[in-house]
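SAMPLE LOG
Freezer: B-3
Tube label: C17
Construct: single chain, 399 aa
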Amino acid sequence: MKTPSIKISNGRIITPAGIVQNGSLLISGGIITELGAARIDKPADLAIDAGGKFISPGFIDIHIHGGGGFDFMDGSIEAFLKIAQIHSRYGTTALFPTTLTAEKEDLLHTLDVYRQALRENEQGAQFMGMHIEGPYFDMEQRGAQDPRFIRNPDEKEYKEIIAHAGDLIARWSAAPELPGALEFGRFLVLNGIMPAIAHTNAVYEDVVKAVENGYRLATHFYSGMSGVMRKNAYRYAGVVESVYLLDEIDIEIIADGIHLPAPLLKLILKIKGINRTALITDAMRAAGMPPGESILGSKKNGIKVIVEDAVAKLPDRSSFAGSVATADRLVRTMISQAEVSLQDAVQMMTLVPARIMKIDKQKGSIALGKDGDLIIFDDDIKIETTIIKGKLVYDRSKS
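STRUCTURE (predicted):
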């Protein structure tokens, strides 16, 4: 069936080069076909007056576990579809479903469910590939990851998982200092999968070797990773310092204003810069839900958590247990706490993650020939409209 054309006018269009005032654009066949400050006279199946609000590229979340009471590890198509729908209301038009440390059988099942959900997802954020987080982590840096399932890289296991998945896995996060982790990284690269550094107690020398073997991204920077440490009276640079030093490594940050306070947000941008910093929600099932008790991970094997102070915590309050942020909140936080411009904050939620995950040829910015993934929001980053590949999936005035 032909995708209806959409014409949007009277908006402030956010582009990498600047903000186009009184801008208009046309989406035909799911692709942006016209764009600029001039009025577009061509007819369209749907005409939207942005009313002077911002027209932005859709947000891209490369690390997300759940929302709306569902988790990708629940093992159901409903969970995948509901998560995609709830986050589209907050401006996310593309996402990478993320697992948690689990048994092999649970990972295989989640991949099977994802394969089915890909075919049925028509009303929510587009699925761009699975992100496998764990189970190859350092126990000391596990955070809220379930220690029952943490283990070293198992060549037989990960080769079986990758063979089973085909091209469904886009990224896999692991601790690079573990035995077999460098071989694991090389195998991922050979199979078109991005290795990422996560939940790790590595030192600088380990991180250098990781980069040499394909690791190019630091998962939820600062969370679950070592900083400067002392061993036998000598100081060693941890992962945090190593990532700052090595320009080859991109980073993603949970910019909810809680996992990273304002001074750290500013330090990150001062050293790594806008172009190497992607914003992620790392959202668990409680995103978009009221405070109270929840579960991190699957309903079968998940860990009980409590949501308070706009973040999920372990019941003993010893550690954060995932974010409950939505993408719009990340942009607001970067503007208010990191004191960046709207244009830069949006870029870290759109073009930067698109480049990191190698989908920037079709997504991440408003440009001719790119996918019609667009959102309209007001000065407070309140989402009014979400359009995914030229299809209107959310209209706040009708919700």
